[in-house]
Amino acid sequence: MYTDRAFFFRLCKLASCAAASGLVLTARAAQAAAESLPATVTAAPMTLFVSWTERPLAVGLAVVLGLIVLVMMAYGIRHIIFTLSRLFGGQRYPYADIDTAQWPQITVFIAAHNEEKVIAGCLTALLETDYPADRIKIVPVNDRSGDGTRAIIDRYVALHPNRIVPFHRTSGKPGKAAALKDALAYAKGDIAIIFDADYIPGRGLLRQLATPFFDPEVGAVMGRVVPINAGTNLLTRMLDLERSAGYQVDQQARMNLRAVPQFGGTVGGVRLSAVAAVGGWHDDVLAEDTDITFRLLINGWKTVYNNRAECYEEVPEEWSVRMRQVRRWAKGHNQVLYRYWGELMSSPFVTLRERIDGILLLQVFAMPPLLLIGWVLALSLYFLNAGSLVALFIPLMAMVAYGALGNFAAFLEIVMAVLLDGHRRRIRLLPVNLLCFFASLFSISGALVESAVDRLFGRELVWHKTLRYRKLVTP
Amino acid sequence: MSTDPQVFISLFIVASTAMLLMPFYPAWQEWRHPTDQEALRVGPKDADDVATLAGAFRTKMVMLMASGDQATYQFIEEVSQRGAVANEAHQELPVVASRAMQTHRAFKCAQPLFAANDLELAGGAMLSEVLAEGHIALGPHSRITGWAHANKTLTLGESSVAVRQISAARAMDLARGCCFERVHAPVIQFGRPVASLARQVGVTSSSPRTPLDTIKNGQPWGDNGWRVEGDCQIPQAHHFTGSLVVTGVLSIGSDAVVDGDIKARKGILIGARARITGAVFCENGIHVFHGAYVAGPLVSESHLMLGAGAWLGTPDAPTTVSAGVILVEEGVVAHGTVWASQAGVVWGTT
Asked: Which segments of A193-318 does DSSP mark as H helices, in order?
């Protein structure tokens, strides 16, 4: 467990070690390459149009670097388009006005594994929502908890036997996806709303999440996640900025632009018949939310985002927990990329806009390693005395630096999101977000390597639960 | 004067580093001495809902009137005699009509108005916020700039304007030429009832339809649904069961019945006397022809035209009608909420 300061020093140390090692290795490689070249070639002045035959290695590396720059630039442009759409475009959410209707039967699932600190808060909040009581069934999914979660749930069931139907899972495959897959058998009606146990839904949230399902094309809906422990420490404040950008700007812009809003696995819901139609709930994935988003998309179903369906969650308060969470997301996301990119590109149901946004979204967690490769290539070209080859990219690199440094939640998006939320002063923390970026960069890159190794040796992906920080609450 | 390049390089490095580090100073300050770290406030979404506003206003007025301090409010008779121009002392005070009130000349009131009984105002009335425990009836060319709620019925005369939200606990009548944004009542009558069409609906709804088992150019999709790439047509007097998603324009023939939810991207035409028992969604315009019936939510992301005698929801199962622009012909009846985010207009039968 790291504190902010300890983590900062550790990160600095790691980064400096990595940079020093990289420089030494690159210099050695460049020296070796230079020594192997004929004297006439090494002495020749570099031009922008140096030929492949003269310097194949340098030209090859420059081409690869150029491609990386272009890919990064695409993400930079994407972030700008999203921000502009949020600021100046039409804000699209056609379901917001539905306030009177015959509300459908829904089942609310609460994924819980050792959640004794938070489960009571979630159940209490759900019981107080304004959704018609006769149309809602609450199913706490107690997945092999070893703490007091079961006892707390049972106390609530005793108090509200007609409204809460517990699912105590004592065996089976571990992980949220597997637990939810088993619990779906308890669903009543065609709509499943899913929360994590640390979430505290507001009074009108269930209605807001249920309304889009009147639209027969909607397969999933996603609400906005708001960190409740934003002010705990520097990390939570950084994550608060990141969440703001991710939802207030990124998700809403994708909704505005009819691109691919993403189901986040919690504070959201799915149409069970749609899930069944696309092959059911998968329990062999780490990011079942991304998995279902893309399977629905490929088969013609829409995922919609409701920026006003806000719900509190806890964000990690320790860097080690955060890094583990990011690694899980990265591995899960890359798993979905590997499985569905081909189908996404060829599906007849997907529009061109969805295809472009979908593939960019799927590759988000492949970008940090790509960026690292880009840095190594740039250094290599410098030591190969081939800096002029990349002169063409220099203007683009300025933009890439901007886009890439905020890759996880672009800086422009963060600023605009925070302004839209009416929090002006916390923007001052923005430069510190570099810390998050660098930490995520190495974490995500490491996750990619782990994914490759897992695949190579056929290792099963392991689900890691995110730690909770709230004080224990009893009913 | 000698210029040592080392000096310029050093200056450049110092200036660059300073520029790079400059933003970190306020960041450091904010980190060490936080001024803005509260969680985003997730408030109730119905704070601006007419029911919430009316409830809060009712509570406030009941307390004021129970206190017996008549300096905290003013009576409608005083305002009526004084005219709309209030002096400074009266500018903020709510207005009370303690008994049934009827005026014969235009009444203008910039303050919130609480009527303990019925309120009947002559044409040209101009009100900001109104709550009546009885009926509200406003004459032609009246204007409500804020919200209004009647605990019984609410009637707006011809060419009146309700800029924001109006609601009634029992029923609402909006005469021809009325403009509205959001109206809510168990029964909303737009313009004069069209008796002949209402009879027609009753007659045709029981007439036999030909079952439609497959959709031309469509493919089964989801649970009991169909999906059509391109345009789609449900023929006249046919009966289709299931949900339907169309990427082009969906035309539903007159007297047809669709038992399910429908959605089309480019437009929906619901023929005369057709019946849709589910929801209707469109990313473009929707035209509901005369005498047609929609049971579920009717939502257009663009414009919506409701033909004479169209019927939306039922008293037992109220619904929501929502679009950017809503044009309503006379004789339309809606049960629930009709919400035009840009403008709604009641116009004559075409």
From this structure: 205-210, 234-244, 252-256, 272-277, 288-298
Q: Which residue of B has its CA nearest to A91?
A: B301
Evaluate if residue B98 carries a pLDDT over 90: no
Pair A449, A332: CB distance under 8 Å: no
pLDDT at A3: 52
Chain B: give the shortest CA distance to residue A452, in Å.
Answer: 35
Cβ contacts of B267 within 8 Å, gap of 6 or more: B249, B250, B282, B284, B285, B286, B287
Residue A122 · residue A142 · CB < 8 Å: no
Cβ <8 Å between B42 and A102: no
Cross-chain Cβ contact B44/A203 below 8 Å = yes
Predicted local confidence at residue B203, as pLDDT: 43
Across the interface, of B31, B49, B299, the residue whose CB is closest to A429 is B31
B324 touches chain A (CB under 8 A): no
B140 vs B143: CA distance, rounded Å: 9
Set of chain B residues whose Cβ sits within 8 Å of the Cβ of A276: 223
Residue A27 touches partner B, C-beta closer than 8 Å: no
Compute the distance between CA of residue A300 and CA of residue A429 in angstroms, rounded to an integer: 41
Q: Is the pLDDT of residue A161 over 50?
A: yes
Q: What pTM, to 2 d.p., does this model score?
A: 0.86
B29 at A interface, C-beta within 8 A: yes
Residue of A nearest to B339 (CA): A97
**Does the beta-carbon distance from A204 to B299 stay under 8 Å?**
no
Structure tokens at A472: 């224990």
Give the integer Cα–Cα distance in Å for B166 and B170.
12
Question: Does A450 score more than 50 pLDDT?
Answer: yes
Residue A42 has a pLDDT of 45
d(CA B183, CA B50): 10
pLDDT tens, residue by residue, A300-355? 999 999 998 988 888 899 999 899 889 989 999 999 999 999 999 999 999 999 99
ipTM over 0.95: no
In whole angstroms, give the CA distance from residue B156 to residue B181: 13
If contacts are CB pairs under 8 Å, which of residues 350-379 in chain A contact chain B?
A: none
A168-171 contacts, C-beta under 8 A, 24 or more apart: A168/A142, A169/A141, A169/A142, A169/A143, A169/A144, A170/A144, A171/A144
